[in-house]
Amino acid sequence: GTRLIIDTDPGVDDAFAIALAALSDDVDLLGVTTVFGNVSLEATTRNALRVLQLCGRPDVPVAAGAARPLVHPQPARAGHVHGEDGLSGRSAALPEPERGPEPGGAVKLLVSLLEAADEPVTIAPIGPLTNIALLLAAHPHVKEKIGRIVLMGGGVGRGNSTATAEFNIWSDPEAARRVLVEEDVPCVMVPLDLTHRCAVSTAWLGKLAAGGRIGAALEALTPDYLASYRRSLGWDGIVLHDAVAVAEAISPGILRTESYPVDVDCTFGPGRGTTLVDRRRAGMRGEGEGAVAPSAVQVAVDTDVDGLGEFVLG
Ligand code: BDR
Ligand code: CA
After folding, report:
1. How far apart are CA 133 and CA 80, in angstroms?
2. Cβ distance 179 to 149 under 8 Å?
3. Mean per-residue pLDDT for 156-173?
4. How confident is the model at residue 290 (pLDDT cuts 50, 70, 90)?
5. Around 267, how many Cα atoms within 13 Å sit in the side-chain half-sphere?
6. Which of 232, 236, 253, 294 has the most CB within a 10 Å radius?
């Protein structure tokens, strides 16, 4: 099975993504690291521990990472989307974790898990990329242990935090640029464009809830998240962005990808946090004129939406 580490900021869709990996027989979930994002680091860490407890996986080590972005002094927040505690105000209904976070923090846990791995490890970052940028910057020797980084983030000409920037990238553009552009690690980027096409309906959530205790507990975390989609898009459903990325991490190829040069806008202007996915034909990119070879990222562009929904219900 896939050896997997999830880096996360739960978050309603993060909770679904963690559960998907924690409950899958094909996955060896080595660890979960947490980062600021949807809510504070304290809350994301507590939420991650609770979701693992819900799934009967207190054996999975959790470590807390960055509480703020690399450069910008203020962490972003999305409590208006995920609820003030990150889980629609329902986190207290989850079981109390029997294990606390690892001492030493996220980067230390990532390094020790990667150093100990005898097969390539997949990392699935589904929050701001701060922890992963710090890892790659400070411990480049672990890069050879990383098979792929499959991240949820960015858009191909669309955003949610701003007109063109997606939340995870916008929350720490310098970190995202380090991971996607400056470091030589194979990346799969799962952008908003695709995750939105994989939105699930309240009927789908009902099916999940009817499927058993864990499904019911996950469905119970969705009311605020559902309300925010109703408010902002007029939808009777939600987007499980992070579960789409983790599905690809678990089951390589479930998403169809295309290779494009990607850059990240790190200016402090209106484009900050935008992913620039260069879909021009190679001949138009001016290569061979002394231009620096752009880093290629596998951008997820398509999937069998119904099949994916079944996979997650699985
Ligand atoms: C991303 O932002 C967060 O709110 C979600 O958990 C997801 O990781 C979507 O833009
Ligand atoms: Ca997330």
Report:
1. 27
2. yes
3. 96
4. low
5. 8
6. 294
How close are the terminal C-alpha atoms of the chain, in Å?
Answer: 16
Cβ atoms of 158 and 193 within 8 Å: the answer is: yes
The model's pLDDT over 257-279, given as tens digits with 9 standing for 90+, comes to 999 999 999 999 999 999 999 99
**Residue of the nearest CA to atom 4 in ligand 1?**
38
The catalytic residue among 72, 139, 196, 241 is 241
What is the 3 state secondary structure string of the chain?
CEEEEEEECCCHHHHHHHHHHHCCCCEEEEEEEECCCCCCHHHHHHHHHHHHHHCCCCCCCEEECCCCCCCCCCCCCCHHHHCCCCCCCCHHHCCCCCCCCCCCCHHHHHHHHHHHCCCCEEEEECCCCHHHHHHHHHCHHHHHHEEEEEEECCCCCCCCCCCCECHHHHHCHHHHHHHHHHCCCCEEEECHHHHHHCCEEHHHHHHHHHCCHHHHHHHCCCHHHHHHHHHHHCCCEECCHHHHHHHHHHCCCCEEEEEEEEEECCCCCCCCCEEEECCCCHHHHCCCCCCCCCCEEEEEEEECHHHHHHHHHC
Q: What's the full length of the chain, in residues?
A: 314
Backbone angles phi, psi at 183, to 5 degrees: -100, 150
pTM of the model: 0.96
- Enter the tokens of residue 284: 């138009």
- Dist. CA 288–CA 275, nearest whole Å: 24
